[in-house]
Structure formats: C-alpha cells, structure tokens
Amino acid sequence: MLCSLAAESLEQNGGVAGRPGGSTGEGVSFEGAGVLSTRPWGDFVGYLPFSKEPVGPTSEKERLAEELAQRSAVPWVWLQGMGESIPWEDPRGSAAFVQAYWSQRGAPEPIGLCRYSVQRTCPLEDVKLGDSIQVCSAESETDAQLIAQTSCAPLRYSALSRSWGAWAVYGVLGADSHRVPAATIVAVGPRQYVGYVPSSLKVVGIHDDWVKLADELLERTAGTRVWLAGPAAFYAPEAE
Question: What is the mean pLDDT of residues 117-121?
C-alpha cells in the first residue's frame, strides 16, 4: 500500500480529474482513483493504487479511463500531462470533469462535451494548483452543481497528501483492506497531531493523543484505517 502511494504521488499532479461514466448522485471522492497519463509518443497509460503494473498503453484514453474507474471502484480518474484543452469522445453525454486553475489567467478550455459549466473559488494556492475550479458536465446542471460543491475539499486533501509522506497505516485489516485509508493524521510536534479528512477543508486538532484522534477520524468517515504521517519519533510511546 505504501509503495503504491509513493508511485501514485509521482505520477499525477492532481489538478485535473474526469468522470468517464454517468452521475452517481453523490459527492465527489478521489481517494483510490486511478491515474491516466499521456506518454511522449502520444498514447496513454494508466496506473492504479495497490498495483505496480501499469494498464495499457493504448491510444483510446476514454476506454482506458472507464477501465481504471471500473477496476478502482472510484468513478473519478486523474488526468495527467494532457495540457489544458483535452478532446474527449463522450457518445453517451454523461462524462464530467474538474479543472483547477488560477482565476487571474482565466478559466481553462472546457474538456469534452461541456453542456453545463460551473466555476467557483477553491483554496489551492499553497499547493500550487490555483485559486478556483471549473466543473464541466455533459449530463445536467444539477450534476455540475453537485460536483462543484463537493470537489474542492477532496482536491485540496489529495494535493496536500503528496507532501505528507505517509509512512504507516493504523486501523483494522479485513476484507476491505484494499480500500484507501479514510483520513490522515500528521504529527506536527511531540504529542501534537492534526487530522485531515477528504470531505472537509477544516483541520481536526490539535490533539495530544494520536490514537484518540484516529478513532475520531474513523468515526467521522465510517472508515477502518487512517494514514500516519510526520516524524515517526513523534508517535513513539513516552518513556515511563
């Protein structure tokens, strides 16, 4: 899991994501999503969490995106290295996209069949992705609005997670051990821990007991595991 996390972090910049299928009727989550990357030769290759083997290459990025979404069980796919204007075949008219951008440079060119477009502010400046997001949906205005309302926090969480350097997983191993941990604890000092969840822009903490913080995060997210990040020495039991 940790090796795959490191590999995934190197493969994507986290600023553009696509949903190749139709609306799920739920908020956006990027945790565990695959990465679709363009190669110098003009074809495409995919990467999945928990797998060291790439998917592809192929010249059909749309079909590859659908395969990544199906295999990861996450509706969204990161789009990496494709530039601003990406042509996208969408015969069903159900795809959607999120693009982070800097408002002073203007909104980016929409991806695919962008019947419905929404722009809104999103605090991504410190992770160098921009200050706004643009959502395009070919499906409906309701779909575009829901994505816009629920994609900012997951985008920020994903971008921040690449700087945390998670080194361990805490929680219960079981039948769903393939699932990505639901939250992250970052040690910022001795007996000082803060928590992050993908669905919120707010930091949880500071706590002086990382185990109690983990339990709180698991309860909030209905998850079974959390990432641990920050210096490992700060998690060591205190000497009696």
Answer: 94
